[in-house]
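Q: I'm a student working through a structural biology exercise. My instructor gave each of us a protein and asked us to get a predicted structure, then write a short paragraph describing it. Mine is C4-dicarboxylate transport sensor protein DctB. I'm not confident about reading structure output yet, so if you can add a plain explanation after the tokens, that would really help. Here is the sequence I was given:
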Amino acid sequence: MLKKRILWLFGLLLFSLLLLWIWLGSWQRQIAEQELWAQQQLQIYRATLVSEIARFENIPRALQSHPVLTRTLASPNNIDVVTRANQLLEQLAADTGVETLYLMNAQGTVLAASNWQQSYSLVGQNYGFRPYFHDALQGSFGEFYGVGATTGIPGYFFGLQMDHEGTNSGVLAAKITLLELEKSWQPTRDLVMVVDPDQVIALASRTELKFKTLTPLSPKARQRLDRTRQYAPLPLTTLELGSRNGQPVWQSKQYRVSQLDLPRRQWRLQLWWPSRPLMVNATLVTAVAGFSIIAMTLLLLYWRQRRRYIQVQLKAKNELEHKVMERTSALATSNVQLARQVRERTQAEARLRAIQHELIQSNRLAALGQMAASVAHEVNQPLTALKNQSTNTLLLARRGMYPQVEESLQTMGRLVDRMARLTSQLKLFAATRRKTRGLCRLDEALDNVLSWLSPRLDEQQIRLENTQTKGLTLPIELHALEQVLANLICNSLDALVGREEACITLEAGDDFLCLWDNGPGIAPPLLDKVTEPFFSTKEAGQGLGLGLAIVRDLVEASDGRLEITSSPSGGARFTLNWSQDE
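A: Happy to help. First, here is the predicted structure for C4-dicarboxylate transport sensor protein DctB. I'll explain a few features afterward.
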């Protein structure tokens, strides 16, 4: 008894050690994968930030020798020269997207600025205390990030020295804002931030993190920042962070920090991602593994017990074996008969489907006949015009008026193209397709269908409204979409017969198409039946009831779905949806 208890305790200890090993393995694997993902994200963030800054840094270089700016440095008291410089900088700032362009003399006073007409104009302000001004004045390319001393808006500053014939040195500066870049970081659930060498968070995906410090500022760092007024008048308070297992805790969430150095300003790009989900996942993996081990152990015990039971029942099983064989023979005979019945039923269903397909094709050909009549009406006018144009061309050729002959031939070509567009879809409309997934322009399909159905629209005085359909593409083949539109519009035309102020409305997006009218609509009990083959709400002889069945088949063949509801205007609403969301 004691030995058995010792074995159970030993097994429990091994089981616990195994679960601990599984948890640690899962945790370490997830940490490695998450760190790899974080580094990839940081590479993307760094490339975006560097690209955003780099695309503006050459603007001061391009203007370094501009005559208007050099004349301003030479004649800072000439109002006309300064005004031209202000106008030049204003226009260049608007064209390049730079927030502010401004010109300073050797003492740091702004002589001209792109915002010279604004209430927060920089003209007359002195920025000699800024590091980028001193760097530029000494011949280097000055760079600086901080809060604007006049506007209070943070931005990235560039400065470049300007000389006029070796005298009257000045600095041309540009300021860009990175607020839009920060907004692009906000949708992520992780924390993205740029930290400067003084541990100040200069950029962040969360506004409550910006211009906070990760560690308290030293007196020397505080004095330097006050001198350059880099973040003035912000207090630069220390971020309230906790610590758990050597990891930072902010707002009750524990994070792990991934970091990547930036080439500019000795910045560091950090990505803080929560570690608790990884612990939860590791715990779930361990729990699943533990339950699996327990289940396998119980299964093994059950198998041993079952084996003993089988040995006891083996004799009885041998006695029943003969009866089982007889019963099996009878069942085999029944299975043969059942298989024959299933085969006959399958053949009957195949014949039925073939008949249904033939009737559907007949309905399509009937619709083709209606469209052919409309096309014949539309083709008659270009044929008449083509005949007259050919006669005029012959006369012009005889008179030697060849420019007019060329223009007339071009007109004839356009008439032929119009007739080709009207007739090219008729043969393809009658064809059947198994798969209709593709890509087509909605306005092209709609133009083709309207070229067939416009006589009916004009005859019934029905208004067709398009809502935001210009330039849209849908994930369905062009000819399939034409058949869908033709069937739906024809149904609306039939429903709107005799109705005053009749209207058909189309609305579409990247993955949906809606069509509705203000007709009598479809009764709610019939909404689920109208797509069944041979079901029709029209009077006898007006249709086979296959139009909406064809529409449903074409849409489903393009991996979409058809939804039929009642429209708020009283008619029926048909929605074609290709969205993958359930």
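A: Here are two points you could use in your paragraph. Confidence is low (pLDDT under 50) at residues 427-433. The first strand starts at residue 100 and ends at 105. It's a good idea to check both against the output above yourself.
Q: Great, thank you!
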